[in-house]
Fold these 2 entries.
Entry 1:
Amino acid sequence: MRVALMVTCINDALFPDVGKACVTLLRRLGVEVDFPDAQTCCGQPMVNTGYLDEAIAPLRSFVKAFEGYDAIVTPSGSCAGSARHQHGMVARRSGDPELVAAVERTAPRTYELSEFLVDVLGVTDVGACFPHRVTYHPTCHSLRMLGVGDRPTTLLRAVRGLDLVELPRAEECCGFGGTFAVKNSDTSVAMVSDKARHVRETGAEVLVAGDSSCLMNIGGALSRQQAGIRVMHLAEVLAQTATGGGQS
Amino acid sequence: MTSTFVGMPKFPVAAREALANTQLRSNLAHATATIRDKRARVVAEVDNWEELRLSGAAIKDAALASLDQHLVRLEARLTAAGAEVRWARDADEACTIVAEVAQRHGIDEVVKVKSMVTQEIGLNEALQEQGISAWETDLAELIVQLGDDLPSHILVPAIHRNRAEILEIFQRRMQGLASPEELTDDPAVLAGAAREHLRQKFLTARMAVSGANFAVAETGTLVVVESEGNGRMCLTLPEVLVSVVGIEKVVPTWEDLDVFLRLLPRSSTGERMNPYTSTWTGVTPGDGPQEVVVVLLDNGRTRALADQVGRQALRCIRCSACLNSCPVYERVGGHAYGSVYPGPIGAILNPLLKGVGVDEQVDSLPYASSLCGACFEVCPVRIDIPSVLVDLRAQVVDAHRAKRWGGVPSMQTVAMKGAAATFRSGRRLRLAERFARLGTGIAARVGARAWTGSRDLPRAPRESFRAWWRRTDGGTR
């Protein structure tokens, strides 16, 4: 099986450790993973702001990078959702039948990390060790657009030493929403303030989620409040072993 | 007593003001959480809820696909049953028809059943201009009317008010109270006062105005679903009854109606069944209103119907489950949406009814969402609100693209075009990422106040993932 890592633009530029954790984790599970260099961004920031024409160039680089792979794995529910549910619309907008056909091949092969681990590899215990008190925020797109369900928490419960505590009002949006966070920043801040309060109430040391964008939002608020709670991507936690760090 | 949404600022501006109102925040958080929990409990009791939702969506889609035929049938049945059917293209035509009916009977006071569509067309204000007083008889609508206020929720229009505020409004504005000084903020006492006030209106009004939740085409029957019994009073006591009905309210058969009568109360008030469901078919000689007029209203509905993605919004049965589940609505309330249709459904319905690219307030509504999808999850007729929002955003951008041709592009357009150029290839992105540390550094210091006002920005790493992969050959060197 040829597997490609779709690292996402935000992880590439701002959170490279999340990408490295994916590589470490997948290799540990016996998956040789490629990083096709042509990849850039799935185009979701443009699509969700209404700039469909501007999403066509990123989509072309997406299919150029990922066509031919059996599985495209991404540490993001939101970007997986974009590839599966929005690329078709952008391709049709381009009027290019070849792009439409290419998307029909890449869209169903795109998996969010927890989906790939549980559904494709059939693994729920990835052999990780992380002896910390953790709470988990199910990001909106992984929860509602993809329907990943309890896959991430099943993976977390199997991690040695990890104490998973429930997050109050877990399924409520953190207020990120892409350009929403800037275009409607007051409302976004009101939402993330409540989310950060719920995270603090759990007494967890670490907040885990499957999307770096949401973690950047909640983590940004927790950091400003000097809350003493760090945020980690699901991949980073699952990459940790008893012998220490997850990085390659 | 006129308040309208005309001239409301764009959503982000209106939201900022609402967010600063701590009383509003606490009233809304409490009220939406209560209804949300009630709804979740009663929906969980129904084994085939998902099938019911699919049926609801399918029935509405089929009805909308041949709306012309169903409307003609509805008109024929209503006429045969003794009703007068009038067609109104827009709000002005509809208001004029209602006023004319009142005037031909020399009526200067009407009672009203709670209705979204008469709010949409600004009927009370239009009647007032003709010297006709319109009295709201739903308790919450009465609170809004007496307070010279605007509704902020579809089901609970006074959701932004608490009982202390309601006491003050009643003492100041309610007519015909025996002893206003004895009123307290006890909900039972307040409801008693409203009953005293309304009873007078029911017994003296000669004309009522209603909307309709559904219009059954096969028999020409209108349906009103309500909780307080005020609707039943209005629909049975006066001599003249005028109902303003949006053309999307038509359902072909009674069998179809059954699905919605099961979906609506659980989604709306969180009850298994609503207390009052009134149905009437034209005129029944010797019983109830002897003159029945039905105004079938377009007011942008055919525009919405022509929108391939957006037409699903016409399935809406005005339950307001999407409002109660929306994290944005819960924090800013209804007024910030600048329309009688607030919340997620308002964010799509207003642009669909009014069109985009004309009014910047309307154009700001599709962006009033984080696209979290909580609305779609609870919608009883499965309106995919997030997808419609995204499609409307593209329509807004396209409308401005056309207008700005040759003009100065907005900051947002510059940013999006810049991003698109960067994301054209992996090589371009790698070059851009060399400046990421510089970029976030500048953003943290000078720009991006919208983010950094309350949130720290992450420190950009020394090396992007892409650069690390190249340098170490995927971590193997």
Entry 2:
Amino acid sequence: MATQTSSKQRLETAAASAPAIELRGINKHFGAVHANRDIDLIVRRGTVHGIVGENGAGKSTLMSILYGFYTADSGQILVNGQPHAITDSRHALALGIGMVHQHFMLVENFSVLENVVLGAEDSPLLGKTLAHARAQLKRLATDYGLEVDPDAIIEDLSVGQQQRVEILKALYRGAEILILDEPTGVLTPAEADHLFRILRTLRDEGKTILLITHKLREIMAITDEVSVMRQGAMVKTLVTAQTSPPELAEAMVGRRVLLRVEKGPAAPGKVMLEVQNLVVTDDFGIPRVKDISFSVRAGEIVGIAGVSGNGQSELLEAISGMRDQLLGTVMLNGEPLSLRGDDGAARARLAGLAHVPEDRQRMGLVTVFQEWENSILGYHHEYGSGLGLDIAKAKAEAKERIAKFDIRPANSDLKTANFSGGNQQKIVLAREMEGNPDVLIVGQPTRGVDIGAIEFIHNQIIKMRDAGKAILLVSVELDEIRSLSDRILVLFDGHIVGEADPATADEGELGLLMAGVTKDGHAPDAGPGTVPAHETLIEKNLTEMSPQDNKDKSGLDE
Amino acid sequence: MSVRVPLPRWVDVALLPILNVVLAFLIGGLIVLSVGQNPLEAVGYMIYGAFGYGSGFGYTLYYTTDFIFAGLAVSLAFHAGMFNIGPEGQAYVAGLGVIIVALLLNGLHWALMFPLMITAGGLFGAFWAFIPGYLQAKRGSHIVITTILFNFIAISLMGYVITKILKPAGVDSDESAPIQAISRVPQLREFFALFKNSPVNLTFLLAIVALFFVYWLVWRTKFGYAMRTLGRNPTAARYAGISSSRMIMTTMALSGALAAMVAVNNVGGVQGRLILNFVAGAGFVGVAVAFMGKAHPVGVALASLLFGALYQGGQELAFSMPGITREMIVTIQALVILFTGAMGDMLRIPLEKLFARWQRTAGGG
């Protein structure tokens, strides 16, 4: 392929000059944790260099050292061949290292221009700085295809555009080396493609890009070289063109991983969960779920695909009784659920609905509790008769679940915050699945979860389906939706805009639906998940599609 | 963005509070020194006054009793995520419940009167705390603001009730009619001669029971579990189906009932009547006690004893060293509250750094 040869050429030319970044023997401890051990890394100038690894492998720590958030306990950082002791992010910027964070560091009610100059003002009076920045932005826009209206207010921009502002901020400050931390997590496939086009242009113009991601597909698509980290150590650095996703996955986890979910055909039974004309508003009274109806049968997994912020959170919270619905009915096993009041979730649970929340740390766990305490959250009434809490029983069951779900470390007395993301998710899953529910609703089951645990979690969900449970799955990971679901509903702007069969639907089609573009501009004709006829969806430029909020995604930092 | 390594538990629960108290005393010592007095001598008098002889120790325990109840009241609410600043007012209003039942049944044997006082006082205190709880749960009024305001309302209300209604004709001071001796809570000196003429009474034993009760309630019951869930993560509580409104109202009522026992101690146990402003700041000390005691009954017990000793030792000091005025003693007490309560975490970060360095040299070297 053409890109492969050019990638090879790039690596060859880059090898001639000093590497943009060279790390030698970097070590970093946090207390007893050895977060980075003897890291050596060479990032060649003018290439895209990927860094992959599971959560807790030390990627973020390493980047934070490079960006001056932390100082390494030992080791050397060379930028363009010169050793530097980077003390803070200002210093890093002065050396030409810029960072685009996973959670944008933008002032929401400032304009693009104001955000770009923030912290880089030349004088107390802004006029000159702003004029200079405006000219610079224009130049960057034409040079790199980074077009954003400088006078637009950040909160009016789509997530993809906000990310471009972050990149512009770094470039405006003279960044030659860009670090991007999980940049595609919040983007639609189309927006992600656009980002990759920008990154390629930047690379062709001589910038160096360090891409941190857990999506192996992205690594394969855009990087020239890829480094794999595991348990704080650098396992290997590979030329992307000469490796494959299974090889990378194995290097990350340290054992062979099945990247595909294996499941048999579904055997749907009677309707267990039925949602009728549901309308849900957010905390500010703005409708987020707009007249949605669908049903889930026993023994099937219905996946809700969509870009984050299109009403998924509110949908899950309303069905599980965490958020008051404005209108509509939720039927469980033919009986309407009474979800009103601040203890609606207790009644939902009593009726046989279990909920794996999309944000386990904010909703599903009390992280300061011991593991066994979280193992009974929501089910604590079942432990002990009378007032007393039957701690012995709770601990005994927690231990059983630890064994059954391979939760590590296997210590029910350990504080939950000390478990890794994947193990925390297993604690939640074990609790919700072992309650033997009729309906299981699952939000973002593998967000921030290691590859090894993903495999396990997916298998558990399939197992629940095969045991005849009705499962509603919501995920922003399209791959996950496609591999697990028996039926896919696409959510856009609070409406279900289409239904697809995961076996036949292609990614482009789903991607368009996720961006709100339906065939011929009409809602597709589908079964239970149809859009009300009066809805006509406006076809817009894809890149201007605006998933409303990315504020709800806090708390996924481990 | 810096990673903080948590302190070892013994440092957190023992070393840090001790360092805070030492720091407060060092600065208090400088104040004593600045007026030309000997700080070591002053500390000696304080310790002697608080623990050195039976009557002094009895007084220390009497103050400790008040502080345990107020501290537990604040601690309990704290576990549900609420900051109850109102034990002062709750205890004051509870005094009304205690005196009503005591005067209505005046002459009843204390063995019957004591539980009645506890019940009536508890109900009044619970009611006074329930209202801010209700306002927070149903109307979203912040509990910190409402409980502070309810302290003021309590002062005005009780002032009116005592001076205009309860005060018998022909009595000059602002107080109710007295409770007969047989109905009063018995003094511990009647069982232990050691306590001589000090006011420590049976309510002290009730305080010990309350310490165990609060431990059991918070850590050994379903209610306590739900309460801690709400206090630590309200979103998770909603997820778990724990009704925050019900929990807030119930917990505040229980908190108020605990604060109410200050009134049983004072009205039923010491004064034998309801006098104006009898709480005298014990409710506010409870806030400092709960902070210093990390809202744990063991911590509350120790912190209460410290403050009890400070109060009683301070009186002794003022009596024995005329060069040190009452105001100066209040200043020293305030310093302890300041260092253990408001600035209790001042030394945390330096200590964390120190321990992180020790660990690294020990583990990584």
